[in-house]
Amino acid sequence: MTALAAGCSREASSPSSDDAGGARTPIVTISADQAVSPVPPWRIPQVEVTDENAAELKKKAAEALARGRLFGGADDAIPLYFALRRFDPEDAAANRGFDKSLQRLIVRGDEALAGLDRDPLSLRRAHEIAAVARAVAPGNVDIVEYLARLDRADDSQEANRLGEEALNAGRLGVDGGRDEALTHFRQALELRPGDMRAMQGIAAVESALIRRAEIAADRDDYAGAERELAIAAKVRPPAPSVEDARGRLAMQRIVRVNALRDAGVAALMRQGGIDEARRQLAVLLRIAPAGDPAAKELRERIDLATHYGLFRPGQVFTDAMQGGGRGPQLVVIPHGAFRMGSEENEGQDSERPARNIRFDRGLAMSRTEITVGEFRRFMQATKHRARATRRGYSTAYDERSGNLVRRGNVDWQSDYTGQPARDDMPVIHVSAKDAIAYAEWLSAQTGQRYRLPSEAEFEYALRAGGRGRFPWGDGPPPARSGNFTGGADVSPSGRRWRNAFPGYGDGTWGPTRVGSYNPNAWGLHDLAGNVSEWVADCWHDNYRRAPRDGAAWLNPGCRSRVVRGGSWASSPEELRSAWRQGNDANNTTARIGFRVVREI
User: Reduced to 3 states, what is the DSSP secondary structure of residue 400?
Assistant: First the structure.
């Protein structure tokens, strides 16, 4: 049974290269020798007995019996005695010889059955012997009992065959199912105690379960591996192979845990490696035993580096660009938590439900809105065509009517009235897609990840640790707190705001140079006022299914984006910290610009 033994070896239980990702069971094959083809009925050789040759035939039969030649041909014992008995049923010598021949035949058949574990061909010999027995003495009690033993051997081999088919199909039978490998192999053992083929099949089931455990461990599923081993231990207890596997996997687990710890620590040494370290920790915590010191060490190291990496809160810095020069000034915002949105007694339905958002890591946000000069570098370095340029118009302020009107030949190079803009002014007349393209260009130029802030990040930075109705609190705006509608503001032609903060004046009408007013508590300018700003999120009517982690809420292909932060022309209501508005992503106007964040 060489093929079966190979199927039960540890090497043979491994999956093939084509199936290395799956928990394949050992492949057990039945050779042609094991599969018994039908044995034809035995035809009794014709022997002519006469009075003249009877004595000679008896002598030949006795010699054949003595030499163990039972049924091969007409000169063998059984054909000769069978013919002699038919010639003279009362012949005592012939009857005795025939009975001895049958006994020898049964002994030989039992020897063949006993040799099944060593020689698969022995089952066929047992069937050939049975064919002889059926032909010459079908009603003999000893023959009937032998045939019953042969039937049990056949049933055992059939059970083994079914078990091997189930094993190869992955139906191991650990749950006791009827058409499963373990059930069939155990049935074979009941029919034929000590059946080597069945015991090898059971060993193959155990091996397959151990292999499943190994594959689970290779996938870092050590809990699943232990479940497989616990099942394997019940297949043929005691289970030294299972204990050996358990020891190997325990050592593999220790090595894997330590490797994850080392990889996480190494990641922390690299700028921007905290996310990678967290991924390593997440895997480590999933596979490590409770209280594992390696997990504790990596967690503590991550906690130290998590919030700021190579930076510190409040730090102002810039990134070098491949094309020369530096990117926009960035301020590191501290990590923390805040309550986003409006409570029931304030604001609009679109700002609810209010929810708690936590940022476990700081981020860097541009200190001011992106300027015309900064955007010009992008436009000169790329083939990007801004939305307003392509369609030939934007929405600008008309001093005569006091309204925002469509005006031709106005784009990102224009100020709020459509005239050429200075480089230190916030860039306006840009769409959300223009802003995203600028951030992507910055990423390519610096090798860092720049993007538009999420809505949650913008409100978090706008509030700067406060919880008031407005970014500065609940009362009127302090002096120099920003460029927004004030009762003391006057346009070039003498217009005043109909809805403004009483008594407040910022000294300008329309957007002004970035950074002209006092920064907030975190060193950021103009989050409230000057121009409203595109953020990354798609517009949704409320926060009911909004992300809880502060990430941007995106939908593929969304056409409407969120605008946050009041502008120079916003009513006091629109200066609230929770205020938000949806706007067509392709829209361009004199009231909307943008700023970027950079992940640290």
Answer: coil
List Cβ neighbours of 92 (8 Å cut-off, separation of 6 or more): none
- Work out the angle between the directed axes of helices 274-287 and 293-306 (0-180°, nearest 10): 160
Greatest mean pLDDT among 28-32, 46-50, 72-76, 404-408:
404-408
Torsions phi, psi for 400 (to 5 deg): -65, -40
User: What's phi and psi for 254, nearest 5 deg?
Assistant: -60, -45
**CB contact at 8 A, 511 and 530:** yes
Sign of CA dihedral 303, 306, 310, 315: negative
Residue 8 scores a pLDDT above 90: no
| pTM of this structure | 0.55
Specify the pLDDT at position 311.
85
**pLDDT tens figures, 143-170:** 999 999 999 999 999 999 999 999 999 8
Structure tokens at 501: 């903060």
- Retrieve residue 131's tokens: 């064919």
CB atoms within 10 A of CB 587: 19
The whole-number pLDDT of residue 23 equals 46
Quick one: pLDDT at residue 115?
Answer: 92
Q: Cα(196)–Cα(207) distance, rounded to whole angstroms?
A: 16
- Selection from 232, 186, 178, 224 nearest residue 13 by Cα: 232
Average pLDDT, the chain: 91
Q: Which positions ≥6 away from 558 have C-beta within 8 Å?
A: 538, 539, 585
Q: Are strands 316-317 and 336-340 parallel, antiparallel or unpaired?
A: unpaired
- Report the Cα 17 to chain-centroid distance in Å: 21
Sequence letter at residue 131 = A
Which has the closest alpha carbon to 148: 171, 126, 166? Answer: 126
SS3 content of the chain, % helix, strand, coil (to 5): 40, 10, 50
Q: What is the 3-state secondary structure (H, E, C) of 256-307?
A: HHHHHHHHHHHHHCCCCCHHHHHHHHHHHHHHCCCCCHHHHHHHHHHHHHHC
As a whole number of angstroms, the distance between CA 537 and CA 518 comes to 28
What are the structure tokens assigned to 343, written together? 């409570």
